[in-house]
Structure formats: structure tokens, C-alpha cells
């Protein structure tokens, strides 16, 4: 399978995506655990059907030490006992923040309040911004139909 569009061959796309990539890198330097950010990226990518991002973030998370069971259970995080309360709050935020069109009113006050119990204001900003970035990547990759499966951990980093 070939992508519809080679985003790396288009000078316009390269200019635009370079800023989104830079934003994502900046957010990785915060105080939110990398594992939490990766879990959120995986969950948003599952919801959006972005195979390329799922390939990338599951492999990067595994390379960083994430366990297979936690990676396998992201889609069923509510029923899984392997996530902390803080991670659950981040995953709930990721789901509602990704499904904005499905939820009148967007992220509920309850989900926000639960996240705010575990994360300070700066960390909440990182969570929200990371979610916006992964949703942008998901949309671009799904539209261009980037194929999944060949990503190597750290390939873009």
C-alpha cells in the first residue's frame, strides 16, 4: 500500500508539519510521564483509525519500557487494572477530547475535574496540547493514507 500523498516530498507540507512536529517535541520535555503521553496518543490514534500513529507510538512506548499488557489493553482501559488513576484520567480526557464531534459540549466537567486532581495547570496544558498535536497527525495521516507496519522506534526523533 502506498500513501496517497508523500508529505515529506511536498515543500508546503514539510513547512507546515515541521511546526507541528516541533510542538510535539516541546511537549515531551514537560513533567507529564512519557508513558502517559504515549498511552494518550495510542488511544486517540485508535479512535481516529490512524494505523501509522498506532504503529509508531506502540513501538516507541515498548522501546521506552512500556509493558505489552498495558499496550494491548489501551482500547479497554476502563476494564483494565494495569493503569493508575492519573493515567485513567488522562485516557478519559484523550477520549473525550478526540471525540469532540460525538459529544455535545466536548470534554465534560467531570472528566476535566478528575484530570485536574492528578495534574497541575502546566501538566494539563501539556495533556491538552499533546492531544491536539496527535489529533492533527492522525487526521493528516488518515487523509494521506500513510501505511503502517514499517516504523522503527525513534525513526523520527
Automatic annotation (TrEMBL):
Q: InterPro entries from the xrefs?
A: AhpD-like (IPR029032), AhpD_core (IPR004675), CMD-like (IPR003779)
Query: Per UniProt, which keywords does this protein have?
Result: Oxidoreductase, Peroxidase
Task: Give start and end of each Carboxymuconolactone decarboxylase-like domain.
Answer: 24-95
Q: Which GO terms describe its molecular function?
A: peroxiredoxin activity
Q: Name one Pfam family in it.
A: CMD
Instruction: Identify the NCBIfam families for this entry.
Output: ahpD_dom
PANTHER family to which the protein is assigned, alphabetical: 4-CARBOXYMUCONOLACTONE DECARBOXYLASE FAMILY PROTEIN (AFU_ORTHOLOGUE AFUA_6G11590) (PTHR34846), BLL7811 PROTEIN (PTHR34846:SF7)
| Name of the molecule in the record | 4-carboxymuconolactone decarboxylase domain or alkylhydroperoxidase AhpD family core domain protein
| Annotated organism of origin | Streptomyces venezuelae (strain ATCC 10712 / CBS 650.69 / DSM 40230 / JCM 4526 / NBRC 13096 / PD 04745)
Organismal lineage: Bacteria, Bacillati, Actinomycetota, Actinomycetes, Kitasatosporales
Amino acid at each position: 500500500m502506498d500513501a496517497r500523498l508523500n508529505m515529506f516530498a511536498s515543500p508546503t507540507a514539510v513547512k507546515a508539519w515541521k511546526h507541528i512536529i516541533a510542538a510535539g517535541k516541546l511537549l515531551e520535555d514537560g513533567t507529564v510521564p512519557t508513558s502517559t503521553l504515549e498511552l494518550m496518543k495510542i488511544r486517540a490514534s485508535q479512535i481516529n483509525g490512524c494505523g501509522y500513529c498506532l504503529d509508531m507510538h506502540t513501538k516507541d512506548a515498548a522501546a521506552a519500557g512500556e509493558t505489552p499488557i498495558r499496550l494491548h489493553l489501551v482500547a479497554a482501559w476502563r476494564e483494565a487494572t494495569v493503569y493508575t488513576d492519573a493515567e485513567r484520567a488522562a485516557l478519559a480526557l484523550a477520549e473525550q477530547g478526540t471525540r469532540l464531534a460525538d459529544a455535545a459540549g466536548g470534554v465534560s466537567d467531570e472528566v476535566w475535574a478528575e484530570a485536574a486532581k492528578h495534574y497541575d495547570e502546566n501538566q494539563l496544558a501539556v495533556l491538552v496540547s499533546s492531544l491536539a498535536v496527535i489529533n492533527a497527525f492522525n487526521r493528516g495521516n488518515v487523509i494521506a493514507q500513510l501505511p503502517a507496519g514499517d516504523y522503527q522506534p525513534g525513526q523520527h526523533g
